[in-house]
Description:
Elements: E1 2-9, H1 18-22, E2 27-29, E3 33-35, H2 45-54, E4 60-66
Antiparallel strand pairs: 1-4, 2-3
The protein binds iron/sulfur cluster.
Amino acid sequence: MEQIKKVTISPGCISCGTCEVVCPEVFYIKDVSCVKDGVDITQHEGCIKEAAQMCPVQVIEIVLEES
Length: 67
Ligand code: SF4
C-alpha cells in the first residue's frame, strides 16, 4: 500500500482557499497555501488527495512511499 510521505505546495498557488476548506487539519492559507508544521499527514490522506484533485492550479504535490 502506498502512503503519503510528503506534501508540498509548488509555486503558483492562487490562494483560493479550497484546500483549507477541504482539509483544514493539513492546509492553511497565509499568503499562499501552507502545510501545517508537525501534522501527521498519514492521518489525513483522504482529504489531502481530495484537496490535490480540487486545486484549480494543481500545485499540491504529493510524494508517495511504499509502506
Ligand atoms: S487549492 Fe490550490 S490554489 Fe487553492 S489555496 Fe490550495 S494550493 Fe492554493
